[in-house]
Amino acid sequence: MKNKMYRLTLGGELIALPDDLNGSYNSVNTLLEEIKEPSIVLIDGLRPEDDNILKETFDAVYQLRCSAVFYAAPIYFAKSMGNLNTFVDGIGSTKEDILPYASAILSRMGNISIEMNAVNDDLRLLTFLFCRGDECSLPPLALAASPWIYEYPAAFLIGGFADITMQTAFRFGPFAEKNSFKVTMRSSAEWLVSLCTQGFLVTMGLVDRIRICPHCHTGNLNYIDSCPVCGSIDFTKKKMIHCFTCGHVAPEENFKNGMMFICPRCNVTLRHIGSDYDRPVESYVCNGCGERFIEPEVKADCLTCRQKSATEDLMIRQLYNYGMTAKGKRAVQLGVIDFEFSLFDNNRNVLPQYFYQVTDWLLQMKARYSDEDFSLLCIKIVGIEAIESMTGINQFKNLIDELATRIRELVRLTDITTSTGANTFWVLLPRTNQKGGEILASRVEKLADMVPLENGAHINIQVKCFSIPTEYAKRGPVAEMLLGEYEATLLAVR
Amino acid sequence: MNNLLNSIVYHLYNLTIAPLLNADFISGILILMPFVLFFEIPWTLFILIGIIKYKIERIEEGPRHPYFPAVSCIVTCYNEGRDIEKTVFSLTEQIYPGMIQILLVIDGASINMDTMEAAKTMESWVNGHSNRSLLVLPKWQRGGVVSSSNLALQFATGEIIIKMDGDTSFDNNMVERATRHFEDDTVVAVSGCLRVRNADKTLCAAFQAIEYFVAIHASKTALSEFNMVNNISGAFGIFRRELLDLVAGWDAGTAEDLDMTIRIKNYFAHTRKKFRIVFDPEAICFTDVPESFAKFLKQRIRWEGDYPFILFKHRHTISPRFFGWANFLGTLINIFTHIVIPGMVFFYTIGLIYQYRIEFAIALLAAVYIFYFLMMVVIYCVAVLLLSERKASDLSRAHLLPFMPIFLFIGKINSFVAILWELIGKGHKDSTMAPWWVLRKNKF
């Protein structure tokens, strides 16, 4: 029999038929020790109403997905376990229920090297997706317990994020370091974004959009209104009255006299809104510093790192369904994942040819209209291979992802980017003069210092700002040639 | 010309001063409009006594009890547009610690989208206040003011219901003033005091402001003292919720306010329970009146025309047995002022010109004018002194008092035309208060 099915039994009532099974195990560890070939795992003896069984069930699925043999194998529940159902391939207690889909997964697993792909988290996730066919995508799931709000169930298990979620309760909190570079603490969503940027996954429809803390990238935010001067959240609304007779403006309580409003200055009884008095403005008084203000400032207080951010500074996370690309399939089939470092996501990153065209066009504009200016930023990351060999591929990738995120934050939506060679990136800054470009350049350069590396190593980012003189405009398309020259000068500096 | 003037003065002297000086004043009285002495003088005295009685009681009233029942304000809107903001604004602004629910019923909301929009934009603003709530009830198909009120009644949660038109606004103590009367169990309704918001806009509006002040502010205060309030205005009436449930809401048709008042009176006369309808001169509502004379006369034709229609509808119940004597008398006075006086004025004037020489007729009318003017001045001064909460504003219109008898005279003639129109042409079916397809179905 080709498709083997093993049962993992928990404490509850068993409903699977023994004839269908090739073996039965009471613990995950024994199963993992004895079975070295990918097969179907049916988790039986379930009791959804029992909290202990729920936890055991999740732990079992988690261990299987973290293992080298079962990370992509079909896993089934014998009966529905409520919210946990999203973590397995399906529900079924007989072979008839399970086999049609499970055998398809197993046969795809047969065509690739499960063992080779198990060495790398990226490959494991891609393999999982590959084995489930072209129709399958990775959907985001709102998980209230996660500080990142949304998780991708498969990635959550395969990438070991369940552990990270547990750890955050201890690692973050009020003791979190200010602005610390949390390389290891990333969510499954960030992981998939980076796989997508590298071209292994493709977005297949937007599911939701959330705001996240710019400091720690988690989503448990409390939007709180506070005094714009001292930041205190303790303030009171004060209604104001404006007396038409004498023009006196004061808080309502100064006017209130029993069940009437009497102006404290001119002693007139204010009877009718609109003809005797009006409300000039609703204002607030801070109980901390006594400041009067019209509009309280709304801040997003991150419940994970306790940093307060202005709402406009919050980062936006788009949550997509992800599917497989041809490049991803090739990586799974070959068991090799080429790591390409790309700074910018596909939306803003254009082909070099197009980039040159836009640059030439802007140069023409600049020559014709004196108030039109633009500048170019060249970013080169030097010595990247050395660091990769020093830190190991996984940590290195996290590091580069983090760096890319930081650079992306500095780049405006109107800026256009391209990549002309290995580790060389160009940013076109419209309506920015040389001076503005240089300020940005210095900021990007400083980012290198923010990346902590062991062994005293240092990541080297070379940034230079260029402005094309208008006399080149007469010569026709010059951008390609000039950009090459500029890039060469950057190398010379080194 | 000189001769004519001399002649007028001569007759005027004979008609006014001479009868008082000579023993032969009986003949003077007989010529002077007979109803003047038999009706207007006792009526004026009655009002003065009522105002003074009210003032004494008001001074002795003592402090306000902490009784603040929940209030629902039913605002019936049609095409007022952004004017309803004034109404909602002034209701939200009430200095009242109790709950105030504002129900905006928009009749024919599908064609009155600007009113609908204005109402919707205020919803969150009102609901942001503690103890204030705004509910917009759009009636997509137009159905008239009665269906609006009855619909809103289904959503009203307050113990006290205030019914008002969409173009009104209120003094900020209106709810507090009005609700205090309901602490007395026998009070079933409070009639509010209507004042003119646009009094300073035109001469016609200023005349109406004086008229409202004398006919509503002063007269109804006095009537209330003797429990003879004859109408709870449809533009501004305050009811106990229980009572509206007892009489099953408003009745279809025009002049639903007068109809409601009569039905309340009938109900209590029938059950022989003690009840009171109070007029409170301190619960003040401002409303816009027609600014041109043409519009004013047209409005009055509509109002006065409705009066005989309601009396006809209730013809079987208008008797001391159903009404009680005081109320029956009040209703008779009402019939007298609304139907008999306009008729008398009309025929008297025609008869006068037909019967007598022109200078005698003019002299006689001048005598009547002086008489009405003096009575007007007395009531106006007493009311400003004892009742008005805006003395300066009321006195600023005092120079118009000499023209008031003429204004009222024209009004009475106009009323008579309205009643004729009602009797001949069934004018109440012509009302703008409800569409024709609703009025057609009414029994009367």
Short description:
Chain A has 494 residues and is α+β, with helices and mostly antiparallel strands. Chain A has helices spanning 28-34, 51-66, 95-110, 114-117, 121-131, 153-158, 161-171, 188-197, 252-255, 326-334, 352-368, 384-391, 393-410, 434-450, 479-493; strands at 5-9, 23-25, 40-44, 75-77, 90-91, 141-142, 150-151, 201-212, 221-226, 235-243, 249-251, 256-257, 260-262, 269-270, 277-278, 282-286, 292-293, 297-302, 308-310, 315-324, 349-350, 374-382, 416-421, 424-430, 460-466. In chain A, strands 2-1-3-4-5 form a 5-stranded parallel β-sheet, sandwiched between helices. In chain A, strands 10, 11, 15, 16 and 17 form a 5-stranded antiparallel β-sheet that branches.
Question: How would you explain this protein's 3D organization?
Answer:
- Chain A has about 500 residues and is of the alpha+beta class.
- Chain A has 15 helices and 25 strands.
- In chain A, the strands form seven sheets. In chain A, strands 2-1-3-4-5 form a five-stranded parallel beta sheet, sandwiched between helices.
- Chain A is flat and about 95 Å long.
- Chain A starts with a strand and ends with a helix.
- By secondary structure, chain B is of the alpha/beta class.
- Chain B is globular, with a radius of gyration of 23 Å.
- In chain B, strands 3-2-1-4-7-6-8-5 form an eight-stranded mixed beta sheet, sandwiched between helices.
- The interface of A and B includes residues 256, 270, 272 and 279 of A.
Ordered list of secondary-structure elements with their pairings:
The complex is a heterodimer of chains A (494) and B (444).
Chain A: E1 5-9, E2 23-25, H1 28-34, E3 40-44, H2 51-66, E4 75-77, E5 90-91, H3 95-110, H4 114-117, H5 121-131, E6 141-142, E7 150-151, H6 153-158, H7 161-171, H8 188-197, E8 201-212, E9 221-226, E10 235-243, E11 249-251, H9 252-255, E12 256-257, E13 260-262, E14 269-270, E15 277-278, E16 282-286, E17 292-293, E18 297-302, E19 308-310, E20 315-324, H10 326-334, E21 349-350, H11 352-368, E22 374-382, H12 384-391, H13 393-410, E23 416-421, E24 424-430, H14 434-450, E25 460-466, H15 479-493
Parallel strand pairs in A: 1-2, 1-3, 3-4, 4-5, 21-23
Antiparallel strand pairs in A: 6-7, 8-20, 9-18, 10-11, 10-15, 10-16, 12-13, 13-14, 16-17, 18-19, 22-24, 22-25, 23-24
Chain B: H1 2-21, H2 25-31, H3 34-59, E1 71-77, H4 84-92, E2 100-107, H5 113-127, E3 132-139, H6 145-155, E4 160-165, E5 168-170, H7 174-179, E6 187-196, H8 203-225, E7 236-240, H9 241-246, H10 256-271, E8 276-287, H11 293-313, H12 320-323, H13 325-355, H14 358-386, H15 391-395, H16 404-425, H17 436-439
Helix pairs in contact in B: 1-2, 1-14, 3-8, 3-14, 4-5, 8-14, 11-16, 13-16
